[in-house]
Write a structure and sequence with these properties.
This is Succinate dehydrogenase, cytochrome b556 subunit. Belongs to the cytochrome b560 family. This protein has 126 residues and is mostly helical. The chain is built from 4 helices and no strands. The N and C termini lie far apart (58 Å).
């Protein structure tokens, strides 16, 4: 393989892309979160109105997406650290990526009820 193409089109490239995308999404969330939290100092009533809009099923789905992004970013970050600092990391990076994906799926399944339970009760009744 020519130099510089080790990851092109393979699992490593897609985990690299997903790591960057989740990082940008998390940054965007934090930016919006700081802005809406700062609103409490400007107008507590406006802050209450904004928070009320967050209690909808659509926002619950967005929160689930946020949990997905944070979990993947964190788990993949640990994998990147292992690849960089473990002497055999590069040799086992594909297996570690699939381990990250498996752990991420299990954790996301476990997050369904805590994150989406309120939205389900609101949509379908308790």
């Amino acid at each position: 393989m020519p130099a510089g193409t080790l990851y092109r089109g393979r699992e490593g490239m897609w985990s690299w892309v997903a790591h960057r995308v989740t990082g940008v999404l998390i940054f965007f969330f934090l930016f919006v979160h700081v802005l809406d939290t700062a609103l409490v100092r400007v107008s507590p009533e406006a802050y209450d109105d904004v928070v009320a809009t967050y209690k909808t099923p659509i926002v619950a789905l967005l929160e689930y997406g946020l949990v997905a992004a944070i979990l993947f970013h964190a788990l993949n970050g640990l994998r990147v650290i292992a690849v960089d600092f473990w002497i055999k990391g590069a040799r086992y990076q594909k297996q570690m990526l699939w381990t990250v994906v498996a752990v991420w799926i299990v954790l996301m399944l476990g997050a369904i009820y805590p994150v989406l339970g309120h939205a389900a009760r609101e949509l379908f009744g308790s």
